[in-house]
Amino acid sequence: MTSADTARSPMYAGTPVPPVLAGAVPLAHVERDGEVESVHLGVLASVATGAQHHDRPLPVRGDPDIPFLPRSALKPLQAVAMLRAGLDLDGELLALACASHSGEPDHVTGVRRILDGAGLTDADLGNTPDLPLGIEAGAAARAAGVPPAPVLQNCSGKHAAMLATCVAAGWPIRGYRDPQHPLQQLIRATVADLTGVDPHVTTVDGCGAPLFGCTPAGLARGFGRIAVAAPGTPEGRIATAIRTHPWWVGGTDRPVTRLAQAVPGLVVKDGAEGVLAAALPDGRAFAVTVLDGSARPLPVLAAAILAGWGVGGPALAAAGRVDVLGHGQPVGRVHAVLA
């Protein structure tokens, strides 16, 4: 059954069909001992950005212009806006501003370094209290009886950078999450500028910050423009930070970090509900959204796309392998379906 068949099923009789459902196609098969037991539907958009490509489209799967919510894959674009407003960060702390970090000790210390540099503290953070996202860091916090806190939540680097941006620009820190705040208005305009798509919706992300909608093609275009930007520009500074400090963008053994470490020069960021975008230094870029919200096929899809572009080697193959287990042992794999 295709996504179009699903959209015509009695389940949707008399009700609007979500555009993302109507535009989705199979992207990955989950195979167990030779049998396909499940299929991930979604959309893949790819573009080639830059002077040598002139935003030339590359092959796609599904409808690349469907409206969707990019979740935390939008963070590098949000960070571009912060730099445009005068945020003074580079290196690992700028990578942390783009991160969905694991909440490991250095991540938490880094967030506090951003806050301290702006004369702020943990108490100024407005993101959702949580425990660390990383498995080991989260287990350690629970074992120690540490309560959920904004500084431990995976988006705290972004929120600390937002607060520091307000201080640098002379904007009030109170209400910095309000979509009408000057910071969020600049972020919205920057997202539109980089993606070439006017956000179709403004909603609230899981961390409490505004989330601006775009399209898979638009998100890919934004990543491509960051990847080819000149050094020293806001976009170029983001690209350098992510390329140079991939651990700060994710954490130990996180798929997004492993992909960045496997492909020198890759600018890559994942997001909740099965979103990932990446771009190479030559401007080739892609964005993928998985319809069921699963992150499971993302590294497989990313590795397959990059390998198809002639990039990578053993490290990328390892980063893109997702085994299916039976009694704790591999009995199958997740396979990309991109032909």
UniProtKB/TrEMBL annotation:
InterPro entries associated with the record: Asparaginase_II
Name of a matching Pfam family: Asparaginase_II
Protein name: Asparaginase
Species whose genome carries this gene: Pseudonocardia saturnea
Gene field: ansA
